[in-house]
Design goal:
Elements lengths: L1 E3 L7 E3 H4 L1 H25 L3 H19 L2 H17 L5 H16 L4 H20 L8 H81 L4 H29 L17 H10 L4 E6 L7 H21 E11 L3 E10 L11 H12 L3 E6 L3 E9 L7
Parallel strand pairs: 3-4
Antiparallel strand pairs: 1-2, 4-5, 5-7, 6-7
Helix pairs in contact: 2-3, 2-5, 3-4, 3-5, 4-5, 4-6, 5-6, 5-7, 6-7, 7-8, 7-10, 9-10, 10-11
């Protein structure tokens, strides 16, 4: 009969292996009871030899079980010899020694060594007491030796099975831990990707809101209709931010929501992205070519997000027109954005997350990002592979 170990996943461990510790206790109890009976018999017969031999085996069992296995083995083997050499019937003593050998092999002693040592001692003790080693005349000697070998081999086999199933349990635990760690890493990477998308998209919308509100501030005293249009566009952008934030939070929230989210932006929407910035008031000189070329999904998303972040940075920290070049062919993708730094004294230093995000986007697609800043002109260049085989 077998059962499933709760701590080892699906490893099925036989009950007799799982109960090895209980088996040791049972064997100790058997040895202790047998020694006590031997003490009683020797005490009734007033024979010190019986008492000494039983005491030697008892001491060897305790010492071998708790402290020094090899010393304990030597004392267990000496018990039957002491009995035989002092004229005490060694049958009880070699029987006890066999059980002690079984116990010591369960505790880790070599089955071969234990069987040979105790078996030889039993053989000599039985032969010495009977006066002959002939199997025809004294079969007890051979039986005593064989019993020691069998019990020692049995104990060694049980210990080997216990170690084998212990290793299986440990491997199962390691496999479970490895799988859980892989799942945790995947979740963390996905959350990082979602956070990066949230940063890119919200940064774009906030930039549009900022430009619309700036335009409304200019138009409020001269053209109320234009100011109202700017405010309406700003409100639309804020609503877009709220919708996207709610969708991202819905993804991150633990629960069952079957709503299908919008697809991840791709390079085919770059032209519409540029138009949204231009409609918000950002002057962009854009040269877009090859947008019809198919790209790996990861690269396609990276193109959109890098352009989006480059334009957002230009609006926040630059002035004047932005020169944007997106060129896609069968082999590579080039994204280049150039703008002037602000000259009105406003702080243009940012937290650096935008550049970090663009660099991570480029590297995740197998490419690289290069920036240049001379204090007046700031440029970003991204080089990405366009080959399908580059997708990770």
């Amino acid at each position: 009969m077998t059962t499933t170990s709760g701590t080892a996943g699906r490893v099925r461990v036989p009950l007799w292996v799982r109960g090895t510790n209980a088996l040791e206790v049972v064997v100790l109890a058997v040895v202790g009871t047998a020694v006590a009976v031997e003490f009683v018999i020797a005490g009734i017969g007033l024979n010190p030899a019986g008492l000494v031999s039983a005491a030697v085996i008892a001491a060897g069992t305790v010492i071998g079980y708790r402290y020094a296995p090899h010393l304990g083995l030597a004392l267990v083997a000496a018990g039957p010899l002491v009995a035989a050499f002092t004229g005490w019937l060694p049958t009880h003593n070699w029987s006890i020694a066999c059980f002690a050998a079984f116990l010591l092999t369960l505790r880790g002693l070599s089955g071969l060594l234990t069987g040979l040592v105790v078996g030889l001692a039993n053989f000599v003790a039985a032969g010495w007491y009977a006066g002959t080693l002939s199997v025809e005349l004294n079969p007890e000697a051979s039986i005593a030796a064989a019993a020691a070998l069998v019990l020692a081999a049995t104990g060694s086999a049980i210990r080997g099975q216990r170690q084998y199933f212990g290793e299986l349990e440990q491997r199962a635990r390691d496999a479970i831990a490895t799988r859980e760690a892989a799942v945790d890493r995947s979740v963390a990477q996905e959350r990082l990707r979602i956070a990066r998308d949230l940063h890119d998209s919200i940064g774009h919308e906030i930039a549009v809101v900022s430009m619309r509100l700036g335009a409304a501030e200019v138009h409020v005293t001269t053209d109320t209709e234009a100011a109202a249009e700017d405010l309406r566009a700003a409100r639309t952008s804020v609503q877009s931010v709220l919708r996207e934030t709610q969708e991202i939070l819905r993804v991150l929230r633990v629960g069952t929501d079957d709503k299908v989210l919008a697809p991840t932006p791709d390079h085919g929407r770059v032209a519409a992205l540029v138009e949204s910035y231009q409609a918000a008031g950002l002057e962009i000189n854009a040269v877009l070519s090859g947008l019809q070329h198919p790209l790996p999904r990861n690269t396609s998303t990276a193109v959109f997000r890098i352009v989006q972040e480059a334009l957002t940075n230009a609006e926040r920290h630059g002035e004047g027109p932005v020169s944007l070049n997106v060129s896609i062919d069968d082999d590579s993708v080039l994204i280049e954005a150039v703008n002037l730094r602000r000259s009105d004294g406003r702080d243009t230093s940012g937290g650096g997350n935008g550049l970090v995000g663009m660099r991570e986007r480029a590297e995740s697609a197998g490419g690289r990002l290069v920036t240049h800043d001379d204090g007046r002109i700031f440029s970003v260049k991204a080089y990405l592979p366009a080959d399908e085989g580059e997708e990770q």
